[in-house]
């Protein structure tokens, strides 16, 4: 009941974001063939980029001339950044909206327990993120055909997408926790977005400077590092573990706190 | 007989801000119980604690003999609640919202929905976001009554309703009451409490001042006394104890609010130069104001 309601309410957002991300993937993969033809020029162009920047964006290990390399540099940035923004907006809205629009009082006076509410809302958030990622994978596959697919490692691609999915879920979890814990929910959306951007910049910083490389343990953007996953064809279990724990932890904390929270209306 | 609602020492503080402190009263089955106080006195805080939307700092309350914190879900199955400000999901149609609420109560009763909508003059196919404040309130009333709850909790229910609709609303309440429904009714408008309620609890600054039957409140010694005299300012009442308020109306009338023994007053006034005396029962508003200002 609640899940259905939440799902329906967020469906429009899901469709819009799906269209945007699918469009971007098609667009990029559509121009790949013509870019690949001028591989020599591309490599020259890439070498012209300062070394630090190359490292920060994984260009030192990936080649724009290969399909997966191109995907890892150009499209991966979009799926991670845009996807995380979507996940954060979605998850923070799902709880915070109820309080902002003061409908929480109505919902809580109905015979429905708080655990049910929080579980349904969590499931709705997770389902949306999952569907969004399904769209990313489907659009990428279609796009690969469009790009006259050379052979590419599907294992690497799936590992990469698994990492992206977990990363989105992590941001969704953090945003969900924020909105479940906050007393005043007005600033929650900006806080959640802020977290995404800060994490993104930390990941860039971690790539730029060796002294800051420890930051790679802090930011989910580094957990889903395309250069590493594509070249090594492995998704670091430590990173997967950290994200799994973060997602579960956010859920448990939200669940625990929401059950004893005063809902201010 | 066990009371339907039993509140004992209920306290809620928000940090340093006062909420309610040590509220204690009980509501019997089948009663229409009024809850009166000025805005910000703690009426909504009390009600929200009963519904477990907020948690008590100390003290306890039970409804149907069940604890409002630990058995809230059970309690809410048999409660109809009308908040003072009604906020619903804007994107829903009225009928969808009513069905949504009914589904949680496991009571899908299209006839009752149509019935209530007809009585309240409510267009079921409009979107919530297009409704005026008064119309939203009507949706709230329908939603609270829909599943025929054992206890109705109404927080300032008449705000936003036009007088005609208020009549319909009170009729609906009477019908519910005839079915044995207990009604808990908060308001700052005393005349409507006077009209509906058996007993009232008066709350001020977060504390309970008095629980009294409406009948008793009306019957206590507080009286309005209007004296007509040629020189009202010259009337000396200093010997009479219990005059709460004294004001001159026009040039010939002296209006008094008196709380005390009537016989003493009549004896005290006997020597004064007045030409006429009018003794009236005060309205509940004045009684309330009396308790409120003291």
TrEMBL record, chain A:
The chain crosses the membrane at residues 14-36, 75-96, 122-144, 156-181, 188-208, 238-258. It comes from the Bacteria. The keyword Membrane applies. Keywords: Membrane, Transmembrane, Transmembrane helix. Pfam families: ABC2_membrane_2. The keyword Transmembrane applies. This is ABC transporter permease subunit. It comes from Paenibacillus glycinis.
From TrEMBL, chain B:
CDD domains: ABC_DR_subfamily_A (cd03230). Keywords: ATP-binding, Nucleotide-binding, Transport. GO terms for molecular function: ATP binding. Residues 5-230 form the ABC transporter domain. InterPro entries: AAA+_ATPase, ABC_transporter-like_ATP-bd, ABC_transporter-like_CS, ABC_transporter_ATP-binding, P-loop_NTPase. The keyword Mitochondrion does not apply. The keyword Plastid does not apply. Belongs to the ABC transporter superfamily. PANTHER family: ABC TRANSPORTER ATP-BINDING PROTEIN, ABC TRANSPORTER ATP-BINDING PROTEIN NATA. This is ATP-binding cassette domain-containing protein. It comes from Paenibacillus glycinis.
């Amino acid at each position: 009941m609640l899940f259905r309601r939440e799902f329906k309410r967020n469906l429009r957002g899901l469709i819009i974001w799906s269209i945007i991300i699918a469009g971007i993937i098609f667009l990029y993969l559509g121009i790949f063939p013509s870019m690949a033809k001028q591989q020599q020029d591309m490599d020259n162009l890439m070498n012209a980029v300062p070394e630090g920047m190359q490292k920060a964006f994984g260009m030192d290990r990936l080649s724009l001339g290969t399909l997966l390399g191109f995907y890892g540099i150009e499209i991966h940035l979009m799926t991670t950044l845009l996807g995380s923004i979507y996940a954060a907006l979605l998850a923070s809205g799902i709880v915070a909206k109820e309080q902002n629009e003061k409908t929480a009082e109505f919902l809580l006076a109905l015979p429905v327990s708080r655990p049910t509410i929080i579980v349904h809302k969590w499931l709705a958030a997770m389902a949306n993120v999952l569907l969004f990622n399904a769209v990313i994978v489907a659009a990428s596959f279609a796009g690969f055909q469009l790009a006259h697919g050379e052979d590419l490692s599907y294992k690497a691609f799936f590992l990469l997408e698994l990492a992206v999915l977990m990363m989105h879920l992590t941001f969704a979890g953090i945003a969900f926790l924020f909105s479940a814990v906050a007393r005043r929910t007005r600033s929650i959306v900006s806080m959640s977005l802020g977290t995404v951007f800060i994490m993104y910049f930390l990941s860039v910083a971690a790539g730029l400077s060796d002294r800051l490389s420890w930051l790679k343990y802090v930011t989910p953007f580094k957990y889903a590092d395309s250069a590493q996953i594509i070249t090594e064809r492995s998704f670091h279990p430590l990173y997967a573990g950290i994200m799994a724990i973060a997602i579960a932890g956010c859920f448990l904390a939200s669940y625990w706190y929401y059950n004893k929270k005063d809902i201010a209306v | 007989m066990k009371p339907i609602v039993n509140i004992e020492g209920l306290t809620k503080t928000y940090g340093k801000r006062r909420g309610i402190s040590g509220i204690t009263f009980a509501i019997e089955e089948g009663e229409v119980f009024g809850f009166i106080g000025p805005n910000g006195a703690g009426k909504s805080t009390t009600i929200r604690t009963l519904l477990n939307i907020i948690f008590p700092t100390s003290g306890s309350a039970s409804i149907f003999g069940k604890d409002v914190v630990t058995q809230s879900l059970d309690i809410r199955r048999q409660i109809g609640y009308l908040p003072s400000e009604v906020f619903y999901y804007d994107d829903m149609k009225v009928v969808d919202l009513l069905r949504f609420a009914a589904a949680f109560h496991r009571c899908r009763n299209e006839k009752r929905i149509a019935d209530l909508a007809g009585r309240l003059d409510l267009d079921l196919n409009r979107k919530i976001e297009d409704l005026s404040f008064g119309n939203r309130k009507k949706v709230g009333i329908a939603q609270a009554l829909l599943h025929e709850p054992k206890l109705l909790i109404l927080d300032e229910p008449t705000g936003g309703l036009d007088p005609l609709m208020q009549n319909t609303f009170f009729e609906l309440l009477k019908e519910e009451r005839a079915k044995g429904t207990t009604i808990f009714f908060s308001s700052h408008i005393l005349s409507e409490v006077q009209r509906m309620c058996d007993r009232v609890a008066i709350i001020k600054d977060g504390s309970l001042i008095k629980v009294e039957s409406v009948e008793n409140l009306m019957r206590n010694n507080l009286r309005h006394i209007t004296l007509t005299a040629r020189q009202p300012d010259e009337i000396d009442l200093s010997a009479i104890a219990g005059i709460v308020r004294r004001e001159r109306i026009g040039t010939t009338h002296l209006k008094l609010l008196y709380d005390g023994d009537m016989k003493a007053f009549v004896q005290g006034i006997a020597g004064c130069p007045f030409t006429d005396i009018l003794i009236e029962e005060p309205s509940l508003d004045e009684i309330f104001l009396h308790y409120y200002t003291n």
